[in-house]
């Protein structure tokens, strides 16, 4: 998990050999934990999802 977070911050060499399926699973767990640790309202979750979708669209 630490390698994935550090790669997101610019150390991409840490995950060069990571299978895409494994990275996706780790990202889902990471995201779930981040969301679980917060008490978001429905509107905040909707705004978060919209932001994630827009960010993902920029990279795809």
Choose one word for the global shape: globular
Low-confidence stretches: none
Tally of separate domains = 1
Number of helices: 3
Distance between the termini: 23 Å
Report the order of strands and helices.
HHH
Compute the CA-based radius of gyration: 13 Å
Helix content: over 70%
Strand content: under 5%
Largest sheet, strands/sense/barrel: none
Quote the average pLDDT: 79
Helix/strand-derived category reads mainly alpha
Query: Would you count the extended β strands for me?
Result: 0
Structure, described:
- There is one protein chain.
- This protein has 60 residues and is mainly α.
- It has three helices and no strands.
- The two termini are 23 Å apart.
Summary of the model, kept short:
With 60 residues, the chain is mainly α. Helices cover 70% and strands 0% of the residues.
Topology summary:
Layout: H1 2-8, H2 20-36, H3 42-59
Keywords:
mainly alpha, 60 residues, 70% helix, 0% strand, 3 helices
């Amino acid at each position: 998990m630490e390698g994935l977070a550090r790669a997101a911050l610019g150390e991409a060499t840490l995950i060069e050999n990571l299978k895409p399926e494994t990275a996706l699973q780790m990202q889902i767990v990471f995201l779930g934990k981040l969301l679980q640790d917060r008490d978001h309202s429905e509107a905040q979750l909707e705004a978060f999802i919209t932001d994630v979708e827009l960010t993902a669209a920029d990279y795809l």
